[in-house]
Amino acid sequence: MARRSAFFISDRTGITSESMGEALLDQFEGVNFKRATYPFVDTPEKARAMVQIINAAAADSGLRPLVFTSIISDEIRSIIKNCDGLHLSFFDAFLSTIERELGLTARHSVGRTHGIGDTQRYDARMEAVNFSLNHDDGISGKDLKDADVILMGVSRSGKTPTCLYLALQYGIRAANYPLTPDDLESSDLPRMVKPYKHKLYGLTILPERLQAIRHERRPDSTYSQLNTCRREVSDAQAMFRAHGIPFTNTTDKSVEELAVSIMQACQLKRRF
Questions:
Q1: Each residue of 235-246: pLDDT tens digit?
Q2: N or C, which end of the chain has less CB nearby within 10 Å?
């Protein structure tokens, strides 16, 4: 199958064009997309260089590339429109419609969605990230009273990336605690997190998936044996049920889906 190029181009970080473009591409199965993201295309010179790259991809594959852009400058956008690809501008698609609806003219300046812009918002994100890093894998029980949520689960069940995503995207102070074999042998909650039972949320995972992840980390060890994974997952779920701790299975969920599920289940609110 020929690979079809898909470009995500932005005058800022590229997160918006990439996220929205990926959401659209995800609707089409059986197409082999070659993706490339180009952030900070914010001058006519960079735009013309970008056109050369797109045109080369078109000539090489014989297929018209898909070009997703989130560029506010009319001048830069018009340069990229002249490429040999299908240009899909999110600003062209929506901005004029919103202007008509609001009866206002957009400011047409580079956005601040993924910049520092509001220092209070930025500081809230960084404070939450630092909190999560300082309370990763049960490093410290200090200030756990300040946590918004404490994720519990066996080793490699997805606790750390979920905590960091909650911190970055929502400003949530998320700590996590790894359930060790010693913890799982007890019928009681681990001593460090027991006072904060109302903040606990469990993560579980299919043993087969857990075994595959652990094998990458420590192959041919007791830690990565399927029987070990089955026993730990079963004991963890039994603990969650015994103490009424809500939990979810991470096997088929992305970190984005996990974060939203946790926000809803724990009734957490975005900090910014």
A1: 999 999 999 999
A2: N
